[in-house]
Specification:
The chain is of the alpha+beta class. The chain is about 45% helix and about 20% strand.
Length: about 250
């Protein structure tokens, strides 16, 4: 019987350690957890980064990329195709760009987007990231997290500004999140990019568990803020139930 390759075992252990982590992990923490030298772990990380499975952030910490989820979704073609079809229907029905994202740290990570587009210079394909505090979909996800957790996500209390409308102070964000929890949806009007309006709602599974959030956006003044509240939010709430059922099947 052939002996297992230690290098493959260690690479998988490293991916599993990153998968368990709620936040990006620094090199020394991964080295301690796995019981391997920093030089060895660094080589594995560089290889996995080169293959697109690992991303290194500005602070030098590591996290999984969206590629792992893409591979996992290959095993669920029916549910995945159903989500994409429903997202396309929403986009065409409401004449908006529609997307589904989840929260990771202080960012939202895009799982689906229809049609592909660019916001603030970021190409919004699967795996793309945007700051949660400046987006409707990010705020609706943050609103479902405990207020005390915000101090961990934003330890210095200062939030980066992307336009003059971006919320840049933690107390103001906490106040906005409280209102979002009350009304059940979030709105962003020019906070991430001037002229871009978006609305988002939570998506719950059939067991009541929060799975992700659903977002609709339009730019260039094609939709007024009032239209998003009166027309787009009801459409999102209707589709959110459908997405919850589809994603629970997967």
């Amino acid at each position: 019987m052939d002996a297992p390759l230690r290098s493959v075992q260690r690479a998988m252990q490293l991916l599993e350690a990153l998968g368990r982590a709620q936040e990006p992990r620094p090199l020394h923490a991964l080295s301690d957890e796995l019981g391997l030298g920093k030089a060895t772990v660094r080589r594995f990380l560089l290889t996995l980064q080169g293959l697109g499975y690992v991303v290194r952030d500005a602070r030098g910490a590591y996290r999984l990329s969206g590629r792992i989820e893409e591979i996992a979704r290959l095993q669920q073609p029916s549910a995945d195709d159903g989500v994409r079809l429903a997202l396309r229907e929403l986009s065409q029905e409401a004449q908006v760009a529609a997307s589904i994202s989840r929260l990771e740290g202080s960012d939202v990570v895009y799982l689906y987007r229809e049609p592909p587009g660019v916001v603030a210079g970021v190409a919004l394909g699967e795996g793309a990231r945007l700051p949660a505090h400046a987006t409707a979909i990010g705020k609706v996800l943050l609103a479902h997290r405990p207020a005390a957790e915000m101090l961990e996500r934003y330890p210095d209390g200062v939030l980066p500004a992307y336009t003059e409308r971006t919320i840049t102070e933690l107390p103001l964000l906490l106040g906005a999140l409280q209102e979002i929890r009350r009304q059940g949806w979030a709105l962003s009007d020019g906070e991430m990019e001037a002229g871009l309006c978006a609305a988002a709602v939570p998506v719950y599974g059939t067991d009541g568990r929060l799975l992700c959030a659903l977002n609709a956006s339009a730019s260039g003044g094609s939709r007024a803020r009032e239209a998003f509240v009166t027309d787009i939010v009801p459409a999102l709430l209707k589709y959110a139930k459908r997405f919850g059922e589809l994603m629970a099947e997967g």
